[in-house]
Amino acid sequence: GTPVELGCEAEGRPPPLLSWFRGVTVLREEPVSTGLRLILPRVEPDHAGTYSCVAENRHGRHNRSLQLHVA
């Protein structure tokens, strides 16, 4: 029931589109030049799973994933 904040940062020219995914579902997406936060205000057991941040521009795509465990 407590909040969790996930952060993702990327730099590029042109600035990348940053996206947060849970599985194949897009949770948040913005063209930013610094970072993109994903805030889960009240974490429940069904929020557990794999979250991925993807940074993409015309030069390429890079991603990082994390596993969220809820006790």
TrEMBL record:
Alphabetical keyword list: Disulfide bond, Signal
Gene Ontology cellular-component terms listed: axon; neuronal cell body; plasma membrane
Single GO MF annotation: axon guidance receptor activity
SMART domains according to UniProt: IGc2
Protein origin, superkingdom: Eukaryota
A GO BP annotation: homophilic cell adhesion via plasma membrane adhesion molecules
Database matches in InterPro entries: Cell_Adh-Cytoskel_Orgn, Ig-like_dom, Ig-like_dom_sf, Ig-like_fold, Ig_sub2
Pfam families, per database record: Ig_3
Stretches assigned to the Ig-like domain: 1-71
Designated name of the protein: SMP protein
Organism the protein comes from: Scopus umbretta (Hammerkop)
